[in-house]
Write a structure and sequence with these properties.
The chain contains 2 helices and 14 strands; from the N terminus they run βββαβββββββββαββ. It is globular, with a radius of gyration of 18 Å. Strands 3-9-12-13-14 form a 5-stranded mixed β-sheet. The protein has 161 residues and is mainly beta. It is 13% helix and 40% strand.
């Protein structure tokens, strides 16, 4: 469950083990704003989804703004799809407030690099295999603010449809 507190600038997440930033937080925040909460400062903004050629798009990134934070109380929750703080508009660059032995892992997809030219003499198929996108995610796990682990699993930056 996700709830929003515009006065405290907190996005509380509870009762779940996995959260997709785009569908579970960003889309829910847009609906919350449209339901009479335009008086509060903007909580987040997306980036990404731009065409990078070959029918591919850049990964989605979501940036908390205006000192908004995600609040986790006593639970361990895995957040998927690139959540960051917009540094110039947040007190800290950590997007989470974690209390009561709660913890999070924040999956961050690597940014793809696509080479447009196949001038190497390779066929298009060979070229595409050689320069396939690396979608391995970096899993930043924290328990009460302490980093506790390293690499995670592959992440689809846009999440489920």
């Amino acid at each position: 469950m996700v709830s929003f507190d515009g006065i405290q600038k907190q996005i509380a997440v509870s009762g779940v083990t996995d959260v997709d930033i785009q569908s579970d937080i960003y889309s829910a925040w847009k609906r919350w704003v449209q339901s009479g909460n335009t008086k509060y400062l903007q909580a987040m903004r997306p980036s990404g989804g731009d065409s990078i050629g070959g029918g591919q798009t850049s990964p989605a990134f979501f940036f908390l703004m205006n000192d908004w934070k995600v609040y986790v109380d006593g639970e361990y929750i895995r957040f998927k799809n690139n959540l960051f703080c917009e540094e110039d508009s947040n007190l800290t660059t950590d997007p989470f407030i974690i209390v009561n032995n709660g913890g999070v892992s924040n999956d961050i997809a690597k940014v793809p690099v696509v080479i447009q030219s196949t001038g190497s003499g390779l066929s298009t198929e060979e070229h595409n295999k050689l320069f396939a996108l690396d979608t391995e995610a970096v899993d930043i796990a924290k328990v009460n603010g302490t980093v506790v682990s390293g690499v995670g699993s592959a992440v689809d930056p846009w999440g489920p449809a």
